[in-house]
Amino acid sequence: MNTAIWGVLPYVAFVLLIAGTIWRYRYDKFGWTTRSSQVYESKLLNIASPMFHYGILFVLVGHIVGLFIPESWTEKVGVSEHTYHMFSLIGGTFAGVLALAGIAMLVYRRRTKAPVLRATTRNDKAMYVFLLGALVLGMVAKLTHSGGSGYDYRQTIAPWSRSLFTLSPDVALMNGVPTLYQIHAVVGMLLIALVPFTRLVHMFSAPVQYLFRPYVVYRSRDPRRLGARPERRGWERTGS
């Protein structure tokens, strides 16, 4: 079972992420969208959406730093384990609360605004369940094991995560990991596999082309600069 969860499931999730994204791009380009519901309600959305997006971005950055930057690297730049733990606890809690508050407001908006609720699909509901589950489990695991020096996941979960990239996952590292962290990791992997089949796929739609497109020049229609407009033809004139 350990081999299936920690040695096989990560690769299944990764393959579904890549293959699903490619399939979605090739065969469902018109569905590659957030399906924005701003036209139905914008006041609450303008508050909740930035909160969720900034919060989840900070959460993602925190996971990347915690899992893929070895402890020896932070020690070399003078960051002690206690300092790192406190920064991770305070920063991670803030980011998690921000993301949870944003997604809670988004869910409330969907449940209370009839047009938005009618536009909600089964995929959206599944996405919210896994997204909320991953966030809540991560925060509960972090706060539950925050006493003293906290649980040092950089000795177990982080090396296991990095071992996945060498195609030789060190499954034994996950044996003594607290249950809450294990469940959080499993839900996170399932969420990764779900990304291409939900609106979360829009995270890959960065407007990179805007950096290289030519400038758009807007000119004034000041008649002193462009001259008077030519008189319209008979069929273009509006009635009096």
Describe the structure.
It is a single chain. The protein is mostly helical and 240 residues long. The chain has nine helices and no strands. The chain has helices spanning 2-27, 45-68, 71-76, 81-112, 114-118, 122-144, 157-163, 179-194, 223-226. The longest helix has 32 residues, at 81-112.
Helix content: 55-70%
User: Cα distance, first to last residue?
Assistant: 81 Å
Shape: globular
Radius of gyration (CA) equals 24 Å
User: What kind of sheet is the major sheet?
Assistant: none
Give the SSE order as H and E letters. HHHHHHHHH
Looking at this protein, list some descriptive labels:
mainly alpha, globular, 240 residues
Topology:
Elements: H1 2-27, H2 45-68, H3 71-76, H4 81-112, H5 114-118, H6 122-144, H7 157-163, H8 179-194, H9 223-226
Helix pairs in contact: 1-8, 2-4, 4-6, 6-8
